[in-house]
Amino acid sequence: xxxxxxxxxxxxxxxxxxxxxxxxxxxxxxxxxxKAGIDWAPEELRVAEPNAMRKDPPPRxxxxxxxxxxxxxxxxxxxxxxxxxxxxxxxxVNFVLDRLAPRLSLFSGGSGQAFKFAPLIGTSxxxxxxxxxxxxxxxxxxxxRDAVRI
Length: 150
Hints:
- By secondary structure, this protein is α+β, with helices and mostly antiparallel strands.
- It has two helices and five strands, in the order βββαββα.
- A hairpin with a 5-residue loop joins strand 2 (about 15-25) and strand 3 (about 30-40).
- The longest helix is centred in the middle third of the chain and has 14 residues, at about 60-70.
């Protein structure tokens, strides 16, 4: 699935990480729409409880995204809508992939990067659920590590 990423050095309140998807839908008048976003969040948007999450993006983040898109992608004409698209992330930026009981496996906290590991995640969860040893070391994703221990 085509997707683009732009990794820049953070500057001030601009985290520098942007991503987007190609035009998969159209506006009411037939113009193509892309999906684009930022892959970082300022401290005030990081919450421990989902109910505490903001519903609308802060104006400064919208402005940073607009500036990036209008300055770097030709053909972008206007912003159609803005939404916050949250995901969970442990303090070490890793997800959790582990066994809870002999036939109970756990995967949580995709951290916005699980798609890159989809085949490994699926195979590992299946092996754990069947009581088989994983084919790779999963300790970096353990539920027992300090970053996710309660």
